[in-house]
């Protein structure tokens, strides 16, 4: 595992106060998603703004984007499908500007595409569009930010190959891959290139998250409902669901995070419950379930009073006070514990219970990509 510093940044909080921060990445750096590196191993400043409509930083599989001060977006890492949004296919280890984006208040990432939410309630997406996840009605990769025909959007969420958005009336609209019914349109048609309403909700949506072939929605009443493929238990049963169905949590939820084939919910009690695939110890319950899906939410071991969640391809992280605890897949050091080797179960690289990353304290906010994490850390320097 390597950790890289993106130097000193100013982070404007939602309350419009400011603090100094450092951003650390625990990454697979094989395609330069570490970001902002200089030839001598140093770094250059990157200023990042707040994001009342979503995350200020979003991480894909091998690339990362952040809202810069001035409300534009800067990205770095792999650019094979145009996911840096600068009109090229050239990867970059330093942040580059996404062209023609201003007044951005939220970001969402898929594996190789990104979407941005503006203050006007509009959404633009760019990058891999092989399943229509950019939302322009085509399957052509987009190297510039491309508008999605959807208005009054208040929040966005990215799946591996699909995208969802919550609009002002509390409904959810999704587009992209639908091979397992993850768009919630009542079918399992191959793909949709434009937004379509997700069916099966019983209340206003406040958050939407997505994996590779499932989508989960947190409603205003704290209930969680999921749709899509069920073979790994990710919709609370082993059968697919083409309309959203309820998940049997022990109590109401405050937050969701989705890995590729599993989902976790942060409950009002501060505990975290997870369900779906546990082949890479994603559920954090102390053991592996390499074959059998886990359809009923199971409590993450040794984790209480969590205040935030994030998910990567096969790992999750939770914030407790100002510390991060991560569990699951660790082949690329994405758990941040200094040990990318065998952890918990041989021969795979896993941690079956939450592990505290080395030398990372005073965390203010964070996000996870497929194989890496990014965190803002308060600093007096």
Features:
381 residues, mainly beta, four-stranded antiparallel beta sheet, 0% helix
Give a short synopsis of this structure.
With 381 residues, the chain is mainly beta. The protein has no helices and 28 strands.
- Percentage of residues in helical conformation: under 10%
Q: Tell me the strand order in the biggest sheet.
A: 1-2-28-27
Average pLDDT confidence is: 83
Distance between the termini: 25 Å
Biggest sheet features? 4 strands, antiparallel
Structural class: mainly beta
Could you please describe the fold and organization of this structure?
The chain has about 375 residues and is mainly beta. Helix content is about 0%, strand content about 45%. The chain contains no helices and 28 strands. The chain has strands spanning about 1-10, 20-25, 55-60, 65, 75, 90-95, 105-110, 115-120, 125, 140-150, 155-160, 160-165, 170-175, 190-195, 205-210, 215-220, 225-230, 240-245, 255-260, 260-265, 270-280, 290-300, 305-310, 315-320, 325-330, 350-355, 365-370, 375-380. The protein has a four-stranded antiparallel sheet with strand order 1-2-28-27, with no helix packed on it. A four-stranded antiparallel sheet has the order 3-4-5-6, with no helix packed on it. A four-stranded antiparallel sheet has the order 7-8-9-10, with no helix packed on it. A hairpin with a 4-residue loop joins strand 27 (about 365-370) and strand 28 (about 375-380). The protein is globular and about 45 Å long. The model is unreliable at about 1-45 and about 340-350 (pLDDT under 50).
